[in-house]
Write a structure and sequence with these properties.
The chain is an alpha/beta fold. The protein has helices spanning about 70-85, 100-115, 130, 135-140, 165-175, 190-200, 210-215, 215-235, 245-255, 270, 295-305, 340-350, 355-370, 450-455, and strands at about 5-15, 15-25, 30-35, 45, 50-55, 55-60, 85-95, 120-125, 145-150, 180-185, 240, 260-265, 310, 385-395, 410-420, 425-430. Strands 1, 2, 3, 4, 5, 14, 15 and 16 form an eight-stranded mixed sheet that branches. Strands 6-7-8-9-10-11-12-13 form an eight-stranded parallel sheet. Helix 1 (about 70-85) crosses helix 2 (about 100-115), helix 2 packs parallel to helix 4 and helix 5 (about 165-175) runs parallel beside helix 8 (about 215-235). The protein is globular and about 70 Å long. Bound molecules: zinc ion. Zinc ion binds next to loops.
Length: about 450
């Protein structure tokens, strides 16, 4: 079989280690890897010039179509993701109107008409009826990943319903029986957050740190401990999204020693920013909040020692109003900078091995959400979702579109993607930064089992 593309002279890195050599792609998948002499003949060759070639980033955590139009987000934000070396995104989707199966079909079709890269869904448990839909969702959408929110008070600005414990527990009971079942939880004690927010607002403070201090780290730690207990009791894998607490990774590691299947995700902003940074104001409101240097350093420990399992961006474009922190919508955008931030701060500054970064960014989220080894691995047969990284390229973060809040504008970072391939097709090339992306080529990866089996054999 001939290859469509061979990348030669490459430092090939994935979660399992690294080797120097070549990688061949045919029909969107990896055809061969390793010895350059053993590569099949190819129509096209790229000389990587010794640069790193890694699996594309699988970002398991984002929200699109929340404030801006969904179709527009699926174009602009997936194009930004491709620039950042991201080749698959998973959306935490939620709907209050009607059941999830028709919602899935509609969102999938619109996504496949707009997206530059592959994408998939987790569904939010937003009302009790959603629990009864789980069997239907599994059968007709293939989605086996559900999310429960906490920490959002009734009437919040983005319309999220927090789950009482009974919803989380019932979702876990159901998901525990599924082969790829997992429940993600936003861990913050909702009742305490409501009480402490009222107390803080009564002081008249409106600054970013007031918001942080109104949701102290123990409200998160307490909820993580409770969710680990639920996971233990139900046997359901637990995915703790956007962890800010340094104790989170430690608690999860201790639980895993007892056989509890719990994964800790954290986000680039909790590793690079604090609520006490001079240049940040109320627009840096995120849920859960930016913390302080002590929590930040503790999270890095978990990043380096293996206790943190995955990275997610929690990318969400919001229009901010520039008012007091209590009225800002929570969230920031990071698709285009997550990988450069990690190359700069994790690899260059803290000595993280590239294979560990690849595990955090690609293999681990792919495994957690049932997409491995189709995604997240440099293996024969895996999708040719690849990012070529120039470890020494220095470039400043730019956010000309201004869509959503960027916390890093002007930061000079070392280590940038220079070429991104999605299923063997170039979706970003740093030498042609203004090239129009090909919208509508992305495919949904959370699909019904029958379709999944069919796709695997093609
Ligand atoms: Zn989120």
């Amino acid at each position: 079989m001939n290859a469509d593309l061979v990348i030669t002279n490459a430092r090939l890195v994935d979660h399992s280690g690294e080797q120097f050599g070549a990688i061949a792609v045919a029909d969107g998948r990896i055809l061969a890897i390793g010895d350059p002499e053993a590569m099949p003949p190819s129509d096209r060759t790229i000389d990587a010039g010794g640069k790193v070639v890694m699996p594309g980033v699988l970002d398991p955590h984002c929200h699109l179509g929340v404030d801006y139009d969904y179709d527009e987000d699926m174009r602009t934000e997936t194009a930004a993701a491709a620039r950042g070396g991201v080749t698959t995104i998973l959306l935490f989707a939620r709907s209050m109107n009607g059941p999830y199966v028709p919602f899935y079909r509609e969102r999938r079709a619109r996504g496949e008409a707009a997206s530059v890269i592959d994408f998939g869904f987790h569904f939010g448990i937003q009302r009790e009826e959603h629990l009864d839909e789980i069997d239907d969702i599994v059968e007709h959408t293939g989605v086996q990943s559900f999310k429960c929110h906490m920490g959002y008070e009734p009437g919040n600005s983005i319309g999220i319903n927090s789950s009482p414990d009974s919803w989380v527990f019932a979702a876990m009971q159901k998901a525990a029986k599924l082969p790829r079942g997992v429940v993600s939880v936003h861990c913050e004690n909702t009742d305490l957050v409501g009480l402490l927010k009222k107390q803080m607002m009564a002081t008249g403070r409106e600054d970013l740190a007031a918001y942080t201090e109104s949701r102290p780290v123990y409200v998160e730690e307490e909820a993580i401990a409770r969710m680990i207990r639920f996971s233990d009791a139900t046997g359901c894998p637990l995915y703790v999204v956007h962890t800010t607490a340094a104790n989170g990774p430690r608690m999860a590691a201790e639980a895993r020693m007892r056989g509890v299947d719990v994964t800790i995700e954290t986000c680039p902003h909790y590793l690079t920013r604090t609520a006490y940074d001079d240049d940040l104001g109320p627009t840096a409101r995120i849920s859960p909040p930016l913390r302080d240097q002590e929590q930040l350093e503790g999270l890095w420990e978990g990043m380096l020692n293996g206790q943190v399992g995955t990275l997610g961006t929690d990318h969400v474009p919001f229009r901010k109003n520039g008012g007091p922190v209590w009225t800002e919508k929570p969230g920031v955008v990071s698709f285009a900078w997550e990988l450069p931030l990690m190359l700069h701060f994790a690899v260059h500054e803290r000595g993280m091995p590239l294979s560990r970064l690849s595990a955090l960014n690609s293999a681990n989220p792919a495994k957690r959400f049932g997409l491995f080894p189709q995604k997240g691995s440099l293996s024969v047969g895996s999708d040719a979702d690849l990012v070529v990284v120039d470890l020494d390229r220095e470039q400043a973060v730019e956010h000309p579109s201004g869509k959503g809040t960027c916390l890093y504008e002007g930061w000079k970072l070392r280590g940038w993607p220079v070429l991104t391939l999605s299923r063997g097709e170039v979706v970003f090339d740093a030498e042609r930064p203004d090239a129009e992306p090909e919208y509508g080529r992305g495919r949904c990866v959370t699909i019904p089992d029958a379709e999944r089996a069919e796709r695997a054999t093609v």
